[in-house]
Amino acid sequence: MTTEKLPNGNIESAKQVGNLVAFHRKEQGLTQADLAGLAQTGTRFISDLENGKGTVQFDKVMLILNLLGLDIRITERS
Fold first, then answer.
1. 31 lies in a domain?
2. CB neighbours of 6 closer than 8 A, spacing ≥ 6?
3. I need a labelling partner for 36 at 20 to 30 A (CA). Which of 11, 50, 60, 65 fits?
4. Coil, helix or strand at residue 33
5. 74 assigned to some structural domain
């Protein structure tokens, strides 16, 4: 698994999203190639996402999160 602690609350970086994706992908027994096939994208995209590359396409990120059963909720800061 990842050595960086998974966020519990606010996501503050693309790297934290990538860590969550990698963690949940592995938890579900999927390889990067498996997930890329499900999302109809390349393994390079999955790798870039999991490594926190900030320029990945948002619509593809949303698709990956959906495939892994993850939701995003946006709330106002207090």
1. yes
2. 16, 19, 20, 23
3. 11
4. helix
5. no
Mean pLDDT of the chain: 89
Question: What is the length of the chain?
Answer: 78
Q: Are 6 and 20 in contact (CB under 8 A)?
A: yes
**Average pLDDT rounded to a whole number, residues 29-41:** 97
Domain that holds residue 21: 14-67
Q: Assess if residue 2 is contained within a domain.
A: no
| CA–CA distances in Å: residue 30 to residues 10, 39, 40, 67 | 26, 12, 14, 11
Q: What is the CATH number of the domain that holds 27?
A: 1.10.260.40
Cα–chain-centroid distance for residue 29?
15
- CA 43, distance to chain mean position in Å, is 13
